Amino acid sequence: MPTEAEESAKASKSSEPIWQSYRTGGTDKAGREIEKLYALNDAYVIYLSDCELFYETIPGLVKDLGPTNAALARIKPTASGQS
Description:
- Helix content is about 25%, strand content about 20%.
- It is of the alpha+beta class.
- The protein has one domain (about 5-75).
- The protein has a 3-stranded antiparallel β-sheet, with no helix packed on it.
- The chain is globular and about 30 Å long.
- It starts with a helix and ends in an 8-residue tail after the last helix.
């Protein structure tokens, strides 16, 4: 029979965002290869895959993404390698 501490650890681990396992050279949840991991923490991840910049966030962070979308659009690499 699992102890309360074991149950709590299991629940905590299952509530971790999937991107906590993202690594350069690995794949994202859609199966795209992660070419470069730029930022990773408990609230978000920013990474490059096939010359496109991607980010994933926790649900509560979505309301604050207006300025983030603008910033990402400025640094998103183009197919020709120019920004």
